[in-house]
Amino acid sequence: MSSAFDLLLSQLLAEAPASDNREARGIQTPRVLVALASERQSPPTPEERQSLDALCRKIHVAGKVKASYGRSWRSRRGTPPLPRAFWPLLIAVLLAAGRLPEHAKAQVELGLALKCLNAALAALDLAAQIGEIPHLEELETEAARLLLQSEGMG
Amino acid sequence: MKTLDLTVLAHEGPQARAYLSRMHHSGFRPSRIVLMVQKRHPVTRKTVGRWLPKLMRIAYAEKTQDLAENYWPRQIRREQPELFATMREELSKILDAAPRILDDLLGAFRYELYCDRVDRILIDNLQDPTIADALAETPGAILFTGGGLLRANLLDLPGVRFLHVHPGYLPHIRGADGLLWSILIRHRPGASCFYMASGIDTGEVVAAEDFNPLGFDISHQERPDDQLLYRALLGYVDPLLRAELLVARVLNRDRDLDALPAIPQQESTGLTFHFLHPRLRAIALARVFRSDGKKPE
Predict the structure, then answer these.
(1) SS3 of B136, please?
(2) Local structure of residue B34 (DSSP, 8 states)
């Protein structure tokens, strides 16, 4: 486990802007990210897995992440994008989920880790297009470390 | 030669050719081929042969599609003969008739050699109503060979069941890049044949199999870039593995192909994957195209 990355994740969690609309309906992406970063069960709970699946899908299929979604992560017209301030946390959450389980009980755990790493790499590319995103270098370092770890699996 | 009660919905390209060739070399032929000829060029999307009389237009569009969809497999054989020879030799060790299928796949393919009834239809895309009209003539089992996502206009046709072969062991590996995700996670390729449903790779499974680990030793060659190696996998390996499962595990059964025993999938058991990022794809490709002389385990 990379302690530098864990420190970064804690820092990002602490820096995450407070949600200013607690009454908002639907799935609030920042709240999901904060929950995923705070809990970090291993293996992920079914709810965490559903959220991670949805984030991966939004990154790969839609090529963007919105600030909120409707039921079952349905996209709603006119919804603004995820604020730039949450992008480091988004990438960090995917990288944290992308850490290879030491003793994977089932291939699905390994598969989910690699799926999240895949999405983190795509999110790093998207972040580069968005503009100045803080902590990108540290996040890239962790991505590179996980890739090396994956290489060693073969 | 045994004629199966099966319609092949053919999208021109390596996959349709591999299925038909593998069937042929095992003594099977479908009862009908419906060959979807695209009105637009597959790459430029410009309308093809708009002003030609219908029959000439179909022939011209078919040729255009052949050249476009089979471009990379032919190009790789021409420009990377060593790579092609290595892959052909290794595939011949694990798959029946692989060299002959590759020859058929890359040559001048005549659909009439593989079936007594070949119907060519000119279409815009998979939502074109011409397809449904054509398939309604011969309901029953339809083999889907690609060309996009099937939607309700075809999936809901009465009396029709679409068979599809996915390059991953279901339900564990669903979605895109199944071959490479299988190699990353399961360390070997796999394939599954299922009756198509509305979700991606979610239908009832007729057969699923893991193949032996795959490896091509290219240490004696200059290693081509990952994009070319990826195209080689998609052009040669993926189609042959799917065809192998189809013929050896599905068509060989002496049963109605639209009523085969099939097991519903438990979606929570597996994952739906997306296209591999180039950096993770490089790791998967390095496991298949080995430059260190080691054999896969």
Answers:
(1) helix
(2) E
Task: Please measure the distance between the N-terminal and C-terminal CA atoms of chain B and give it in whole angstroms.
Answer: 38
In A, residues 39-98, which contact B (CB 8 Å cutoff)?
A: 46, 53, 56-57, 60-61
- The B residues from 55 to 74 touching A (CB cutoff 8 Å) are none
Which neighbouring-strand residues pair with B192?
B166, B208
Contact map slice: A 103-142 vs B, CB within 8 A: 107-108, 110-112, 114-115, 117-119, 121-122, 125
3-class DSSP assignment, residue B210 = strand
Sign (positive/negative) of CA torsion B2, B8, B11, B15? negative
Q: Which residue type sits at B41?
A: H
Query: pLDDT tens per residue, chain B (297 residues)?
Result: 999 999 999 999 999 999 999 999 999 999 999 999 999 999 999 999 999 999 999 999 999 999 999 999 999 999 999 999 999 999 999 897 999 999 999 999 999 999 999 999 999 999 999 999 999 999 999 999 998 888 888 999 999 999 999 999 999 999 999 999 999 999 999 999 999 988 889 899 999 999 999 999 998 788 999 999 999 999 999 999 999 999 999 998 878 999 999 999 987 788 999 999 999 999 999 999 998 765 565
Contacts of B272 in chain A (CB under 8 A): 53, 57
- Asked if B49 contacts B198 with a C-beta cutoff of 8 angstroms, the reply is no
- Reference B115, options B251, B228, B6; nearest CA is B6
- Residue B192 · residue B205 · CB < 8 Å: yes
The 10 Å CB-count burial string (b at 16+, else e) for B109-131 is bebeebbeebbbbbbeebebeeb
Rounded Cα–Cα distance for residues B121 and B202 (Å): 29
- Which stretches of A16-135 are DSSP H helices? 29-39, 46-57, 87-97, 107-130
Residue B297, number of CB atoms within 10 A of its CB = 8
Interface confidence, given as ipTM, is 0.93
Answer yes or no: do A61 and B181 touch at CB < 8 A.
Answer: no
Strand A68-69 and strand B2-11: the pairing is unpaired
Maximum distance among all alpha carbons in chain A? 48
Element (H, E) at A68: strand A68-69
Three-state DSSP class for residue B142: strand
Can you point out the beta strands (E) in chain B? 2-11, 28-38, 118-123, 140-144, 160-166, 173-175, 190-195, 205-210, 216-217, 271-273, 289-290
Asked if residue A115 lies in contact with residue A123, where contact means CB atoms within 8 angstroms, the answer is: no
